[in-house]
Design brief:
single chain, mainly alpha, 3 domains, two-stranded antiparallel sheet, 2 strands
Length: about 450
């Protein structure tokens, strides 16, 4: 039998007389309070004020009360002291199982769990940071690929448009005099995309997370030459055939312009000759005949001027029609090039979005593969590096909590309670005191739960 159990058994004898002692003490207190009430009645009858007689009466009463209080305390001390001692025996045993007690076996085991939880939390944080870094780098890679494709498409489309515009210019420069030569050159136009032009592409990129070799790999990984070659051959061949098919109408157009010019020149020559003969006849004529011939000459000049203006207008119409068709063709080609560039940009944007989504999924999958760790309650412990840190803790606590409390509550709040409040705010709201005098140290506590079967 332990010493504590022996003392407990002996205490039973002490407790047996406790009821009589309690009844006796209650009787003493009751009589003392009755006497006190009587004195209060006398004071109230005197208008609530003391006089010399009442003051002496109150003095004598309070002296006796002090004596009575000591008597009842001495009477109950053996019992209450024994009760306190018994309580210590029970609580001492309970303390041995207190997970928060210093040096207890449960506390040591809890500390091991806390250290393991901290280790796993730090590993998880590293995994998350690494997953975030990989995801960020992958998103940059996706963006770099999109930038290369966008710039490469522009490099190619600008070249294709320029090539087709030169073909268009060459076709527009055809005349009756160079028709055969231009027809031969049109048939000889190559329809193959130049590898030299493709390889001359130099993208403008500003990577942050990729080094030179990785960037070079990204650029070479975007291989669109085969696709560009097919597009170039198809569109150039199609345009070339269109120009070849239009050669007969082009020749007819040129012949019509030449015929109009020839008719205008012939009409001008005929009119000039008629005017020369008319002037010779006027020079020989006299009187009424001369006046009549001069009138006819003026009328003929007016008619000839109108005729020349009509022929010139027809020539201008034909020329304007030609220029309009050429401009429409140039505008159409430019519009087609723009639409193709926009379509390519949309596809690149879709590919980029898909790549970014995949990077996000990969990051989430990587996090999901983490090792199983104990459930952890995390928090912060504030380490005060300088006495000035306590002033900042008080300022933070008072501004966010203390100023709304009563004076007595503020006075009863200990500095450790203020510090605990600041630690709680850091955990709950991520609100910290920015200070060189304070250091927030993460804490980890493993949560103990009954296993679910």
């Amino acid at each position: 039998m332990s010493e504590q159990v022996t003392i407990y058994n002996k205490a039973i004898e002490t407790f047996r007389g406790g009821g009589e002692i309690l009844l006796a003490n209650q009787g003493i207190v009751s009589k003392a309070l009755t006497a006190g009430n009587a004195i209060l009645g006398k004071i109230n009858a005197n208008g609530g004020k003391l006089d010399a007689g009442l003051d002496q009466l109150v003095n004598d009463y309070l002296v006796k009360i002090g004596q009575r209080k000591k008597e009842i305390e001495e009477a109950r001390k053996p019992i209450t002291q024994m009760m306190d001692e018994m309580k210590k025996y029970f609580t001492a045993e309970e303390a041995k199982l207190d997970v928060k007690g210093a040096g207890t076996i449960p506390a040591q085991l809890q500390q091991h769990r806390n250290e393991y939880a901290k280790e796993q939390a730090e590993l998880e944080k590293q995994r998350q940071e690494e997953a975030a870094r990989r995801a960020s780098k992958e998103r940059e890679r996706v963006q770099l690929v999109a930038d290369v494709e966008t710039q490469l498409n522009k490099h190619f489309n600008d070249h294709l448009l320029s090539y087709k515009q030169r073909m268009h210019t060459g076709f527009n420069e055809i005349t009756l005099e160079n028709f055969a030569d231009k027809e031969r050159k049109l048939a000889d136009i190559p329809c193959l995309y130049s590898l030299d032009h493709y390889q001359s592409f130099k993208p403008t990129l500003r990577p942050i997370q990729h080094n030179h070799d990785e960037l070079a790999g990204i650029i070479t990984g975007v291989d669109l030459f085969a696709n560009f070659s097919a597009i170039f051959s198809s569109e150039v061949e199609e345009l070339k055939q269109q120009f070849i098919d239009r050669l007969p109408s082009k020749k007819s157009e040129l012949e019509a312009l030449a015929a109009a010019e020839k008719a205008r020149q012939e009409e001008a020559a005929r009119a000039a000759e008629a005017e020369r003969l008319r002037q010779q006849e006027i020079a020989k004529a006299e009187g009424e005949r001369k006046r009549q011939l001069e009138e006819e000459a003026r009328a003929a000049a007016v008619a000839e001027k109108a005729r020349q203006e009509e022929l010139a207008a027809e020539q201008r119409r034909l020329e304007e029609d030609r220029l309009r068709r050429e401009q429409e063709e140039a505008t159409r080609m430019a519009q087609e090039a723009k639409e193709k560039e926009e379509k390519a940009a949309q596809q690149i944007e879709m590919n980029k979005a898909a790549g970014e989504t995949m990077a996000l999924f990969d990051a989430e999958a990587s996090l999901a593969e983490g090792a199983e760790a104990p459930e952890t309650r995390q928090g912060f412990e504030i380490k005060v590096l300088h006495a000035a840190g306590y002033v900042q803790i008080f300022q933070f606590w008072f501004e966010n909590e203390g100023k709304g409390l009563g004076i007595d509550k503020i006075g009863n709040t200990k500095m450790d309670q203020m510090k605990a409040y600041c630690e709680k705010q850091a955990h709950k709201n991520s609100t910290v005191i920015e200070s060189k005098f304070l250091q927030y140290v993460p804490t980890y506590k493993a949560v103990n739960r009954k296993a679910v079967k």
